[in-house]
């Protein structure tokens, strides 16, 4: 049993699926699934442990889907207790330490402020983190969360006035910069074109691989990095995505030329030709650099 737990800890820690991609019977004992990751890992561990090898050859128990899920839940609860214990210890000292820890995803039947507040209150109570020790809340600008009178933040403030609400800094920065760029046509157009370029490349694994081949042939290799997707809420992610466009500028222009020559679709050809033409203009590159 201990070996099964060790194997589960390893798979969960490395974010590896317990079963794998080939499952013949979802209700079967997982350790008896010949191609499951758990089964193969146990066999590997059993090659150096006689007792485990004999156990695997016998009628394997404790590895049904229900048992595995229960073990994983217990592990998750142990991790949560350890994290919350550390938060409580730091919170009770004079020099408090800021924590950013992921403690779970929670399902809600409704998305109203009252429902979300009740969920927050219930979760913090279960984790042993009383709301009266909370000193801050951070959400985006959605009214259901940040509403001054009826938002979830307001409901928490009614219970604990010291839990001050702060608009997410990353989201605030993104909103501020977006409003700023709207007043500058060069920056606005460059951002829009950059987004279209990224969608064109990242929407096709073939084009991504094509771009990597072009970079290798040109001697750039991995030094410029891969093209990254835009983020709708984080400006810092947008900035890094735009920098990747600048770093791969020449290779992307070559890629557009090859896509245009290879494509038989008129809409794609027209879109690629338009992007290629814009990339040859000074305003586009200047706008990207100015935005950064």
| Helix share bin | 55-70%
Q: What's the number of helices?
A: 14
Give, in spatial order, the strands making up the sheet with the most strands: 1-2
- SS-based structural class? mainly alpha
Tally the structural domains: 3
Provide a descriptive summary of the structure in words.
- It is built from 14 helices and 2 strands, in the order αααααβααβααααααα.
- The chain is an all-alpha fold.
- It has 3 domains: 2-72, no CATH class; 105-167, no CATH class; 175-291, no CATH class.
- The protein has a two-stranded parallel sheet with strand order 1-2.
Summarize the structure.
The chain contains 14 helices and two strands. The chain folds into three domains: 2-72, no CATH class; 105-167, no CATH class; 175-291, no CATH class.
């Amino acid at each position: 049993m201990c070996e099964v737990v060790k194997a589960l800890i390893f798979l969960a820690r490395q974010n590896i699926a317990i079963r794998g991609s080939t499952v013949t019977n979802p209700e079967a004992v997982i350790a008896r699934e010949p191609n499951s990751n758990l089964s193969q890992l146990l066999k590997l561990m059993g090659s150096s442990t006689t007792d485990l090898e004999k156990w695997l050859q016998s009628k394997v128990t404790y590895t049904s889907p229900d048992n595995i899920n229960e073990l994983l839940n217990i592990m998750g609860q142990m991790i949560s207790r350890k994290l919350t214990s550390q938060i409580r210890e730091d919170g009770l000292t004079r020099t408090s330490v800021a924590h950013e820890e992921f403690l779970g995803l929670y399902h809600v039947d409704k998305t109203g402020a009252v429902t979300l507040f009740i969920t927050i209150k219930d979760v913090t109570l279960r984790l042993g983190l009383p709301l009266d020790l909370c000193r801050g809340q951070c959400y985006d600008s959605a009214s259901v969360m940040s509403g001054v009178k009826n938002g979830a933040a307001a409901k928490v403030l009614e219970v604990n006035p010291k839990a001050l609400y702060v608009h997410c800094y990353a989201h605030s920065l993104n909103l501020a910069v977006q409003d700023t760029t709207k007043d500058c046509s060069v920056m606005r157009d460059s951002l829009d074109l950059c987004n279209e370029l990224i969608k064109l490349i990242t929407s096709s694994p073939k084009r991504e691989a094509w771009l990597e081949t072009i970079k290798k042939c040109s001697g750039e290799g991995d030094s410029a990095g891969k093209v990254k997707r835009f983020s709708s809420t984080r400006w810092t992610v947008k900035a890094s995505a735009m920098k990747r466009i600048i770093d791969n500028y020449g290779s992307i222009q070559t890629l557009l030329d090859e896509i245009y020559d290879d494509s038989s679709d008129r809409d794609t050809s027209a879109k690629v030709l338009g992007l290629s033409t814009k990339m040859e203009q000074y305003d586009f590159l200047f706008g990207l650099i100015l935005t950064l």
